Structure formats: C-alpha cells, structure tokens
Amino acid sequence: MRVRKISTIALVVTSAALSLTACGGSDGSSAAAQNSTPAAASSSTSGQGTATASSSANGGTSASGSSGSSSAGNKAASRKSTASGTTCKTEHLAFSAASAGVKNEIVVNLKNTGSATCSMHGFPGVQLLGPGGLGEKGPDAAHTDTTAATATIAPGEETRFLLHYIPDSSGSGKTYTKLAVTPPNETVFDVMDLNGLKITIAAGTGNAPDVYVDPVGYHTGSGK
User: Fold this and answer.
1) Rounded Cα–Cα distance for residues 224 and 218 (Å)
2) Residue 98, Cα to own-chain centre: how many angstroms?
C-alpha cells in the first residue's frame, strides 16, 4: 500500500513537473518573442536611419548640386567680369595717328575692335621707324612724368596717348614716318603709319632722348 501511495505521489509530482515544464516552455517562447520584438524594432529603426541618411545624402547631393550650380554661375559671372575687364590685346586694337593740335605733338588712337570691353594702364612702348619700317629703326620714346590712369574701352571706343618730340634744328636730322607701338602690359607690337605726319629729330640724340610718350588714357570715347 505504501508503494502504491508513493507511486501515486510520484505520478502527481511527475505531472506537476511536466506542467511546470510546459509552463516554462511557454514562458520561454514568450520571452523569445519579446526579445525578438526589440530586434525587429531595432532593424526597423536601422532601416529608417539608412533611409534618412540616404534621404539626407540625396538632399546633400541636391544641395551640393545647387551649391555647385550657384558656384558655377558665380564662376561664369566672374569669367564674364574678368573677360570684360581684361587687358587690351594688340590684335584687338586698331592704331591711327593725328595731329594733336599742338606743335610737335602727335596723338595716337587705339580703337577697341574686339567684342568685349578691355582696359589699359600705363605707358605704351613706342619706337620710331623710317619709311622702310623695321628696316629703319629709330629711338625708343622715353616716358614723361605723367601719372598713369586706367583706361577702360568698350567695343568700338578709343583711348589715346600723346607723343612729344623735339624737332631737329640743324637741318641734318632724321625723319620718321611710322611707329612700332606696344600697348601697356603687352608683348606684341603693331607697326602703324603716321598718316602723312612726320617726326624729324636729330640723328644723334646722345643720352637725351628727343621723343617722349605719355601714358594711355589721354582721352576715351567713340572717337567721333
């Protein structure tokens, strides 16, 4: 009888144990499910973070693109501004000479034949030439003490400079009818005629030059 009671008790204990095990398994599944929820949430949050980062990255690219466009626009404007104020090139200038209306002075006109506004500042290089051009080189003009100003010339407009000379009085001077003119800050010269004018100076000038040049900017305008 005692054995039977023990068996009965054992059955009860075993049943209880099985019940507890079952409950424990249920709790474990629930816990796993609960643990899986934060993981899923974390994965979802990570996805949003990537999307946000991606969106942010796209936004950044877009902003960068916008900034780039703005920068490109500024650069274009800068290039345009630079181009409009660039130094006048010899190839885009037409040279002519006329009497300055003052004895022993000649005005040299430099007309902007280019399509953009340009500017000049300083003294031109001027060398006297005879009828034979470069085959009859004369002296280089010295600079006067006139202060240089910047001359800005729109297409079709002109700037000018004055050439002064001390005429020969000995009767044995040399005559020049052309000029080799190099605009300020340029390295290319242009050979021009004096349009019927002549410069006759002493053949031997020694250390004292007989021809002088002012800086450009004597006058600007349409030249009409």
Assistant:
1) 15
2) 38
pLDDT digits (tens, 9 = 90+) for 36-52: 433 333 333 333 333 33
3-state secondary structure of 108: strand
- SS3 of residue 171 by DSSP: coil
Those residues with Cβ within 8 angstroms of residue 96's Cβ, 6 or more apart along the chain or in another chain: 108, 109, 111, 192, 195
Q: Is the C-alpha dihedral spanning 65, 67, 73, 78 positive or negative?
A: negative
Domain boundaries, the chain: 1-84, 87-221
**Intra-chain end-to-end CA distance of the chain, in Å:** 143
**Total Cβ atoms within 10 A of residue 107:** 18
Beta carbons within 8 Å of 222's beta carbon, 6+ residues apart: 156, 157, 158
pLDDT at 220: 62
> Taking the model in full, what pTM does it have?
0.60
Exposure b/e, 181-209, CB count within 10 A at least 16 = b: bbbbebeebbebebeeeebbbbeebeeee
Domain 87-221: give its CATH architecture. Sandwich (2.60)
